[in-house]
Amino acid sequence: MQTITKYIIILILGLFTIYASAQDIEESSNNPEKEKQLELLIEEIRTHEKSALKFEVEQINDRVTKKEITYEEGEDLKQEVAKKRALNIENRISIFKNKLAFYERNNLRTPLDEDGNVKKREFDISFNSLNDINNFTGVTILGGKKKPVKYDYRTLSGLVVAAGINNALIDGQSLSDSPYKIGGSGFFELGFQWRTRILKNSNAIRLRYGLSLQWNKYDLKDNKYFVQDGNLTTIETFPVDLKQAKFRTTNLVVPLYFEFGQYTKTEKKDRVRYYNRGFKIGFGGYAGLNIGAKQKLWYKENGERTKQKIKQDYNVNPFVYGVGAYIGLDDVSLFFKYDLSNTFKNNSIKQNNISLGLRLNIE
């Protein structure tokens, strides 16, 4: 017992070489409670190493008793393990101090719990157990339980972005007779979507659904603009020369598409993953609500340039629904959509919006 005590005393003497560095941690905070918690954690590091030293000295004594090594060899080994444990304490406190400084310097989430106490498991570093000391090959950084890897994901989420040209099909008129410029009229869609694999062991059939904002814009030609007169909306000639007239509707819709296509499958011991790669085709539709309509007019009047923004309902149909389809490779597709609902309700102008462009899935 006296021999064990002697080497613990050697270890304690070694601690004075690192006492000053430990003080740096304690002085880094004006919070007395935090200082107390820091010192307690440092003391736990010291206590663990002292216990480990005691265990090693006992093992050396057993070897001497069994005459596996001489008394002199045992004394040399005890000197070595005492030095090792002193260095372990110095290194572990240094790691703790550096990690704490990193958190504070980079304004990361504080390593304190709700009561202001230092989270021991955020900073401690130790051997797996005292029984593993002789077979020690590394250290274990302690932390919360590692979240297990999920074997398979049937549903993934991401963004969808689509843009292109926009126009309208009007009863009794061909697309070439449309009052809207093909080049200046466009659409844009931005949404959040989910992709669910239909089959258990194949990604050949997927279901895409989510929530999207759609903007449909018309660029009127031939000096025309929209006029709302009660429940009637018509296209009229503007009284002065129009530089530009644009009309836009904004819709919030829920899209739903069935997608078919190629894919790649990666299998590992603890997981399986499916990726959309190669050719794909999708078709489906969407339904939702119109949430706004706006007209912008640019013209000169009395020599002054004027830009006029008019926000009113223009008798736009409050309910929107239509069909869509796309074909493409990987995450990029050629996209088409057509509103089955009329753009205007109870109106002499019976027109249905039509769009063609590119669609990008971001997952």
SSE blueprint:
Layout: H1 2-15, H2 19-27, H3 32-65, H4 71-105, H5 120-123, E1 125-126, E2 140-141, E3 155-170, E4 186-197, E5 205-220, E6 224-229, E7 232-237, E8 242-267, E9 272-301, E10 304-311, E11 319-329, E12 332-339, E13 351-362
Beta strand count: 13
Shape: elongated
Indicate the CATH class of the largest domain. Mainly Beta
Rg over CA atoms: 37 Å
Largest beta sheet: strand ordering: 3-4-5-8-9-11-12-13
Question: Runs with pLDDT <50, length 5+?
Answer: 16-29, 120-144
- The CATH topology of the largest domain turns out to be Lipocalin
Portion in beta strands:
35-45%
Question: What's the architecture of the largest domain, going by CATH?
Answer: Beta Barrel
State the end-to-end CA separation: 65 Å
Query: What is the percent of helical residues?
Result: 25-40%
Question: Quick recap of the structure?
Answer:
This protein is α+β, with helices and mostly antiparallel strands and 363 residues long.
